[in-house]
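[agent] plan:
  1. take the single chain provided in the ticket
  2. run structure prediction with default settings
  3. attach structure tokens to the ticket
  4. add a short note for the reviewer (M.T.)
[agent] executing step 1
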Amino acid sequence: MLQEIDPKSLTDNVFSLIGDCWTLITAGTRENCNTMTASWGGLGVLWNKPVATIYVRPQRYTHRFTEESDYFTLTFFGEGEYREALALCGSKSGRDIDKFAAAGLTVGEAACGAPYVAEGELILVCRKLYRQELAGDCFLDQSLIEKNYPQKDFHTMYVGEIVEAYRRA
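[agent] step 2 finished; step 3 output follows
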């Protein structure tokens, strides 16, 4: 059972949560959504609000849903749990398969209507505040482009206010 929590009560190590355990970014509606695995992102405070920052490449199917939605969600799992599902959601496109069915996952719906992955241990519901396409000429360390963007397919960055947070009891 999920219990609503105050985002400020989080004590998780965000570097491990995002970089090691990964997250599922989900956007759209309960009836029409997509999810993708991410290991880049951030949690913090911006504009006096608790926020999450995500990065989605424009060619990802989830990009369209994130662009068209007012909200996105982040779903986190316990370490090692659902690793196969996360790998599938990071390597297959929702254009080609129903990722939820293929990964054995279920769509939940937050109070604001945003879809999330119901099996998660921690769910953050974020209202989009800002978006910006990363630009090559803004990189101060140009080696990052060679390493991460050989095709010049820069991510779109989204900053979302964490408006709801849930933890599995």
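[agent] step 4 note for reviewer: The chain has a mean pLDDT of 96.
[agent] ticket updated
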